[in-house]
Amino acid sequence: MPKVKSFVVSAFVAASLSAALPAHAGTMDAPGFWTTPTVHNYGKMHFLPNGAFKPQPGHTYKVVFSLTQGGKTPDEVSPALDHVARAVNLYVASGVPLDKLKFVAVASGSATSLVLSDAHYRAQFGVPNPNLPLIDALKKDGVTIAVCGQAMAQHHFEYDWIDPRVTLSLSALTTLTTLQQAGYAFMPL
Predict the structure, then answer these.
(1) Against a cut of 0.70, is the pTM above it?
(2) Among 97, 68, 95, 98, which residue's Cα sits nearest to residue 83?
(3) pLDDT (tens digit per residue) in 65-76
(4) Taking Cα atoms as reference points, which of 145, 161, 160, 66 lies closest to residue 113?
(5) Has residue 112 got a pLDDT over 90?
(6) Is 92:38 a contact under the CB 8 Å cutoff?
(7) Same domain (yes/no): 113, 154
(8) Same-domain status, 21 and 112
């Protein structure tokens, strides 16, 4: 009898788990599960109203993002830049107003090219710069996008190739350390 009971319990658990998996996966694919509350079409997130460590609406959040990942292909948005959009969306979904977000994203390494103007990006890679619409959206939400001047030189990119919405910084190293000294949290991407 114990073997039969054990088999029945095991079969019930297995059936319950297999029945729950498609429903759970379907929920994640359901319309409205993933949202982009302020940086539309970028930085998809799923809000958890009871999630721990939720940002507080009355606080000011200062973060400097170190962008070092370019897209896998030239026609792909940088995943690091998309993560900045996700951060903005998560804070806004938590009730933090945009004017309480002091976000700076500095590109260097393989992410350096994401700041090139469309004409110069096309000349380098043969496709339009897919990052520019996201840069525009982030700028409208108050995010400062910067690029490392040293990385620009290292990649043999001229400084006047930088999109006008992007700030040329002395270096990523000095941007990161200067802002950390000013109380910004460091977020490597």
Answers:
(1) yes
(2) 68
(3) 999 999 999 999
(4) 161
(5) yes
(6) yes
(7) yes
(8) no
